[in-house]
Specification:
By secondary structure, this protein is α+β, with helices and mostly antiparallel strands. Helix content is 34%, strand content 14%.
């Protein structure tokens, strides 16, 4: 078998037309991925499970075709996410963990530490479980998506959960917040991707709330192995760090720039984001965000 590149949470080999994956993170991660793959088997957007060894935390999976992403890959990406999200419903409650509801308290502390006026924005930063039962990938990043003439398919569902799919389709708008590569999608492609998502799902909905959830999450400033309870928003006041394509401050400034446009739907948070962006620009060195997807091994 040929050993393939993988993250620290797994070991992966190619064996002919099969992929062998051993989840080394923990048993819970293995079980989440196996359950998610089986729940989504009928959608055609995940590899088929050929066999599973619970004791060894090993999966044997169908090997998926992987073509280079096209320039408009985000449209197939969004359509594939829609099909994944539609795989589950209320009847699947309890099979996977619920999506975590963000706590805005550390973010508000960060705003105060930056000496920026909150201006009543906390009233618009109250988050609740939306009660949805969509099948969430948990980490739909470059490298976890694969492309063929049939569209996008997804691998590495170790962090799958049940929740609101809108928080994943907004990756295209808010800059892929849990991912090594932050990419600013051109407006025309972003709008086409969001339209494809809602056409596939048969409804439409505003996406600003889902973006705000990522704006306030300090864990979205570090790679998954470092999401250990540390208040990374408190850290970023005094220090910056690179994570693959840009820095933590670069990520936060980009998200603030996106949220600053939400003047009609969230006027107080939009104004706060604009004030925060101005302040960050005064005391931090701005970092550019790429507009072209780069390869992540």
């Amino acid at each position: 078998m040929e050993r393939l590149p993988s993250g620290v949470r797994s070991r992966v080999w190619a064996d002919g037309d099969r992929i062998v994956k051993q989840v080394v993170a923990d048993q819970a991660a293995f079980e989440r991925e196996l359950i998610a793959l089986r729940l989504a088997a009928h959608t055609g957007v995940v590899p088929r499970v050929l066999s599973a060894d619970h004791a060894e935390r090993t999966l044997v999976l169908e090997k998926l075709r992987s073509d280079p992403p096209r320039e408009d890959w985000v449209v197939d990406y969004a359509r594939g996410l829609a099909r994944l999200h539609d795989a589950t419903g209320p009847e699947h409650a309890g099979l996977l963990p619920r999506q975590v509801v963000p706590d805005p308290t550390p973010f508000l502390r960060f705003v105060r530490a930056m000496e920026v006026e909150i201006g009543g924005a906390e009233e618009e930063l109250v988050f609740e479980d939306t009660g949805k039962f969509d099948l969430l990938h948990g980490d739909p990043c470059a490298g976890n998506d694969m492309y063929s003439p049939q569209g996008a398919r997804f691998v590495d569902l170790e962090n799958a959960a049940l929740g609101d799919g809108l928080t994943e389709v907004v990756y295209v708008r808010i800059g892929f917040p849990t991912c090594a590569t932050v990419t600013e999608t051109p407006r025309e492609l972003r709008e086409a991707a969001e339209q494809a998502y809602f056409e596939e799902r048969g409804f439409t909905a505003p996406l600003e709330d889902a973006c705000l959830r990522w704006f306030v999450q300090g864990d979205a400033l570090v790679q998954r192995a470092e999401r250990d309870g540390t208040d990374h928003l408190a850290r970023v006041v005094d220090e910056d760090w690179f994570w693959y394509s840009t820095t933590a401050r670069g990520r936060l400034m980009y998200r603030a720039r996106v949220v600053a446009t939400f003047t009609e739907t969230h006027p107080r948070v939009s104004a706060l984001a604009a004030r925060l962006l101005e302040r960050m620009g005064q005391v931090w060195e701005p970092r550019p965000i790429g507009t072209v997807r780069t390869h992540v091994s």
